[in-house]
Design a protein that fits this description.
Blueprint (H helix, E strand, L loop, with lengths): L9 H8 L4 H10 L8 H13 L5 H24 L3 H9 L2 H9 L2 H13 L3 H11 L4 H25 L4 H11 L3 H32 L1
Helix pairs in contact: 2-4, 3-9, 3-10, 4-8, 4-9, 7-8, 7-9
């Protein structure tokens, strides 16, 4: 059984991508994982590979990739903020504690949530939906999405670029192991929280001792 079905075979997809303009690549990235049954990270890896073999300019792919990722997030964010039936449907699906995280989070915590969500399966669509539902201001959302897209997109493109000789294996691994990133991300979050809380306690103790002096 092939890794991808029918016309969406891996090599077929590579052959298709290498003949596209940058504007067409932009649309393909937006559609990946949604209208096209190829995960977005795999598409970015392939584009990195094609840049590595000289088909595209790596910086051009960076720009197109970031713009496509941001466009998708902005569209979903506006849907979440619209108050439409679709937005209400997603609101019912999202757990209350997730909504609370976004509502009560500081700007720094929101940035961490935005960055992590890009690497978590399902988080790519949940994050902008929740941001819209919780009515995060557009300017703030745009800024946070811009930063997270600049950190997320090049990771997969550079993997395909630097490891182009192993791109078939890498794409299969990334496609299959993408769901395994959830526990890894959770561990990172827990470690971050522990460090953050410890630092806050240290600051309070230090400030108290300093005040006594």
């Amino acid at each position: 059984m092939s890794f991808y079905p029918h016309i969406y075979s891996f090599f077929g997809f590579i052959g298709y991508l290498k003949n596209l303009s940058y504007s067409e690549i932009y649309l393909i990235i937006i559609s990946s994982g949604h209208f096209i049954p190829i995960p977005e990270p795999v598409t970015l890896i392939i584009l990195g590979y094609l840049s590595g073999v000289g088909r595209y300019n790596i910086f051009g792919i960076f720009v197109v990739g970031v713009l496509a990722v941001m466009t998708f997030d902005l569209i979903v964010y506006l849907i979440g903020r619209s108050g439409s039936k679709l937005a209400n449907y997603f609101t019912k699906k999202v757990r209350t504690h997730i909504l609370d995280k976004y509502t009560n989070a500081s700007d720094f915590d929101l940035l961490i949530l935005f960055i992590i969500s890009h690497f978590v399966p399902g988080g790519r669509i949940v994050n902008p939906i929740v941001a819209g539902i919780t009515d995060i201001k557009f300017k703030k959302f745009f800024f946070l999405t811009l930063i997270s897209a600049f950190l997320y997109t090049p990771v997969y493109i550079l993997v395909g670029y630097f490891f182009r000789s192993k791109v078939l294996l890498l794409a299969k691994v990334f496609g299959a192991a993408h769901h395994m990133m959830v526990p890894i991300i959770l561990i990172i979050i827990i470690l971050f929280i522990i460090v953050y809380v410890s630092l806050e306690k240290y600051k309070k103790v230090y400030n108290t001792d300093h005040a006594k002096e």
